[in-house]
Write a structure and sequence with these properties.
By secondary structure, the chain is an all-alpha fold. Helix content is 47%, strand content 0%. The longest helix is centred in the N-terminal third of the chain and has 22 residues, at 13-34.
Length: 120
């Protein structure tokens, strides 16, 4: 997952990521159980056992890799990378076709599942 976030206090970003990972891990595991996706659950359980954490499933990698976006040029470079990543991976042909990307927002589309605050 790649995202650009802003927080009132930069030191709160680790807490935001911790809470996001904790919540989404729980929701993903619950959905996998509900839908009988035992293969995925088995992988997440094996990963949790390897990490020596006191958790049943490990959905996310440990840590995160923040990069400070100090200039408009650097911001646009990273936003472009994020928007084109699903294309480079071969998931879609156009950045705006990736349903959970802000590319459609920046292209001016109104019917998008996730609203974002455009910066540039």
């Amino acid at each position: 997952m790649h995202l650009i976030i802003s927080a009132g206090k930069p030191e709160s970003i680790p807490n935001i990521f911790r809470d996001l990972k904790r919540h989404t891990s729980s929701e993903i595991s619950s959905l996998l159980k509900t839908h009988g996706k035992s293969n995925a659950l088995r992988i997440f359980k094996k990963t949790a056992n390897k990490s020596n954490k006191d958790q049943e499933y490990k959905v996310w990698q440990s840590g995160y890799h923040p990069i400070s976006l100090e200039t408009e040029h650097f911001f646009k470079q990273k936003l472009n990378y994020i928007h084109h990543n699903p294309v480079h991976k071969g998931y879609v042909n156009e950045p705006t076709h990736w349903r959970y990307s802000s590319a459609a927002n920046y292209a001016g589309y109104d019917d998008v599942p996730l609203q974002v605050d455009k910066i540039f």
